[in-house]
Amino acid sequence: MMSLNSLRLKVLMAYVAGMVLSITLLVIAAVVVVQSNVLARMDLADAAEGLADDVEFDSNGRPVGFDSRRLDDLAWLFEGPQRETAYWILDDTGNVAVFSGTEEEFWPAGGDLLWLGRGNFTFEHEGNTFYGVTEPLEHAGRTWYLQFAASARFVDLLHRAAFPLVVTGVAIFGSVLFVAFGLCAYITLRYTLKPLRDVSESAAAISPRSINARLKTEAVPTEIAPLVDSFNRALERLERGYRVQQEFLGNAAHELKTPLTLIRAQIELTEGGKNDRGALLSDVEYMTRQVQQLLHLAEVSETHNYHFAVVPMQEVALEVVSYLERMAEAADVRLAVRAVGDVKWKADRAACFTLLKNLLENAIQHAPAKTAVSVEIQGETVTVRDRGHGVEVEQLPLLSERFWRSAHRRDHGAGLGLSICQEIASAHGWRLTAERAEPGLRFRLSMGRGSLPLDSQGGSDA
C-alpha cells in the first residue's frame, strides 16, 4: 500500500486530477458548441460541400440538379408543407440555374451577390430563422455557387437528438483515455522509481562492516543522481572516520603491550613483599588482558582481516579445548566435545578459534568446580553450555554491552569477550544467542543468512 507521502501516489493523483479536469472541460466545450451556432455553421458547410460534389451538368455546362440516386436520398429534406431546408445554384451574375421545390421568393433579395463566395449567412423567412452557406464549384471554366439553407429549429432538433450521442462518445473516449493513460503512467512510474527502490535497499544494507560499499548511480534518474552522489561522499567521510578510529584503537593496543611487558618484568625483579608483588602482577595481567582484547576487537571489526575457507569445526573445537586445558584444570572444570558427523563450515579458521575460545573461557569462569563445560557440534549449530549461576532476567539486555561483567566469575576480565564473539559471528553471517539452561547458560551459534546481536534470549560475557 502506497503512503500518502509517496512520490508515485502524488504523481498519479496529479495525473487523475488532470484527466478529470480535461474530460470535464471537454464535456463543457461539447455542450457549448452544440448549443451555439458554430456547430450549425460547420454542419451546413459540410452538407453543402457534399452536395456540391453531386451536382450534374448538361451538355452546355449548366447545372441541372443532383445525381438521381443522391436526390432520392435527400428528397425528403426539400419537400413538405413546412420548408425546413432549401438549395439553389446560381451563376457568377446571380442568375438562378436550378433550385429546390421552394419558390425563388424563399431566398431574400433573389440571391444577392453579397452572398456569393464561400461564406455563411442568416436570414428570416415567414418568421423563422434560417442558416445558409455558400459553396463555390468549378465546371468547364465557369464558377457556380451552391447555396444551402436550413431552419434554426431543424438544426436545433438534429443537435438535440445528437447531444446524448455526443455525451456518450465523450464519456467512452474519456474512460478509455483514463484507463489507457493511467495504466501507462503507473507502469512508467513503477519502472522509473525502481532504481530508487534498489538504491534504498543498497543503502539499508550498508553497515560498519560494509562501510566501504557505495551506491550505484548508473540507473538512477538524473534528478536523483546528485542526492546519491552526496550520500556516497558522506559514506566516504564516515569510512575515513571509522578507519581512523579503528587504527587508533589498534595502535593504542599495540603501544600499550610493550610498556605492560616491561612493567611486569620490573615487578618480578623487584624485591619486596610477596603479596604486594602479587597484587601488582594481577593488575598488570588485567591491563594486559584488556589491551589484548581491545586489539582483537579492532581486528575482528574489519572484514578484510578475514580469510574464508572450509573449516572442520570439530577439529577447531578440540584445538581450543587443548589450549584451555590448564585453565580448566585450575578451575577444576572438565571440558567435553561432542560432534555429530563431520561438520564443516565456510569460515575464517583463526576467527573460529577465537570465538570458541572466548565462549569456553566465559563458561569456565562461570562454571562451579566439579562440573563440565560441553561443546556440541551438529549440522548448522554449535552449542557451548556451562552449569553455573547464569544471569538474572533484568541483566539480559546488558549482556551485549562492551565492558559489562557479571558478578559470578573467577577473574576480572575486560568484559569484551562476547563483543568479540558477536563481531566474528556478524562477519560470517551467523547468529549468536544465549539462553538460560537451568542451571547455567547455553550459547548457540547458528549458520544463517543474517546475524543478530545477543538479545533478550539471554547471554553472558567474557
Structural features, described:
With 462 residues, the protein is α+β, with helices and mostly antiparallel strands. The chain is 48% helix and 18% strand. The protein contains ten helices and 14 strands. The chain has helices spanning 7-35, 37-52, 68-74, 152-204, 225-269, 274-300, 313-323, 325-330, 349-366, 417-428, and strands at 55-57, 63-66, 85-90, 96-99, 119-125, 128-139, 142-151, 309-312, 334-340, 344-347, 372-378, 381-385, 431-436, 441-446. The strands form four sheets. A five-stranded antiparallel beta sheet has the order 4-3-7-6-5. A five-stranded mixed beta sheet has the order 9-11-12-14-13. β5 (119-125) and β6 form a beta hairpin. α1 (7-35) runs antiparallel to α4 (152-204), α5 runs antiparallel to α6 (274-300) and α6 packs parallel to α10 (417-428). It is rod-shaped, with a radius of gyration of 49 Å.
Topology:
Blueprint: H1 7-35, H2 37-52, E1 55-57, E2 63-66, H3 68-74, E3 85-90, E4 96-99, E5 119-125, E6 128-139, E7 142-151, H4 152-204, H5 225-269, H6 274-300, E8 309-312, H7 313-323, H8 325-330, E9 334-340, E10 344-347, H9 349-366, E11 372-378, E12 381-385, H10 417-428, E13 431-436, E14 441-446
Parallel strand pairs: 9-11
Antiparallel strand pairs: 1-2, 3-4, 3-7, 5-6, 6-7, 8-10, 11-12, 12-14, 13-14
Helix pairs in contact: 1-4, 5-6, 6-10, 7-9, 9-10
